[in-house]
Prior knowledge:
Elements: H1 2-15, H2 21-36, H3 41-50, H4 54-75, H5 85-107, H6 113-132, H7 137-143, H8 147-157, H9 160-184, H10 190-218, H11 220-226, H12 236-250, E1 256-264, H13 267-274, H14 276-293, E2 299-302, E3 307-314, H15 316-327, E4 341-349, H16 355-379, E5 383-386
Parallel strand pairs: 4-5
Antiparallel strand pairs: 1-3, 1-4, 2-3
Helix pairs in contact: 4-5, 5-6, 6-7, 6-8, 6-9, 7-9, 8-9, 8-10, 9-10, 13-14
Amino acid sequence: MGTTGGAERSDVVASQRPLSGPAFRMISSQLVDWYQRPDQFDTFNRYLADKGLTIASRFLVVSSLVLVTVIMFLTRFSAQGPTSAHARTANLVIIVVTVMMVLVLSTKRNLSRSWSYAFVLYSEVGIAAAMLLYSNPLAALAHAVMFSVIGGYIAFFHNARLQSLHMLWVFVVVIGIVTRIAIVENYSDIPVLLALVVLVGAAIYVIPFACQFILSILSTDALNSQLDPLTGLLNRRGLADEVRLLLERSHKHSTLLVVAAVDINRFKAINDEYGHSVGDAVIEKVGSRLVDSAGPTALIARIGGDEFVIVDSVDQRSVDRLAHELRRPTITSHDHPPVAISVGIAKVAGPFDSVDDALVAYPTLLRRADRAMYAAKARGGHSVVLQTETG
């Protein structure tokens, strides 16, 4: 019956006229849902890593920056580009900083979300500054097309709120350039100016917006089936799928397969004393804390009410760092005491002879981590126990 109901709803939606009231309300609801979605930097990077596309995606971003650098360099030899001494100096500074950004992107192994935000911020300011350096404002307006590269990057790696800020910033910059053309330069061919604005606007707004909106809508069902709705972390099903992909990539490496089992102490008492809203806030805070403590390649899942699991393939140094970070207290609010967690960490050294051997080793490792977690809980308070390979 559920399948029939879903088909009926699909038929109803498909039969709606594009400009009808129900269709408009449906699209409005989807837009609100799209706007409220969390940042997808970690999720999308994990997807790229699982599919072996990290290097390819990084290459595309680097290629875009190289293209911007080439364009900036070529403008130095044009009468339409930077002509004054100050403008040429500023142009050179932007070129040098962009080249440095290319080097970082080409050599840095793992990029954090904060670094990604810094990259977006620099790009927004750098492109706007480059536009202001043109002596011909019409050439500057054409240069605004480069904002579409940043819009596309945000569409895949971040959320709709950052995309909205990007679009607002671009609107301000473009309006400023158009004002300069129409008023300061007294440009009289308004039809050509409007046509150029429409063309540039389509590249800047329509393409990135369509990419982000459509991708987010299409991925809803897939994400919901794999992610915990409260924390945005993997759920039990998502963890099982992702662990297989992790082991397929890393089973031949001489690294440690590490599993950490995490449980929140006295969680039921927190719920009873402060209410479920505070309990949810504690769950979310602990989830965020695990993301901050684990490495960028780690799989982090909420597998039960107050139970979490971390799985990764790393070296001993990373295991020690994880244990150190998890020993720090977790603060949810100044009004509440620190949240104590019990953590059990188990590890086994690779390589494995096959993916199947690694898949057999994983549940054993999970049970060992679980036993270590209960040993930590028996100690009382905030505790981390590292299980030995023979334990």
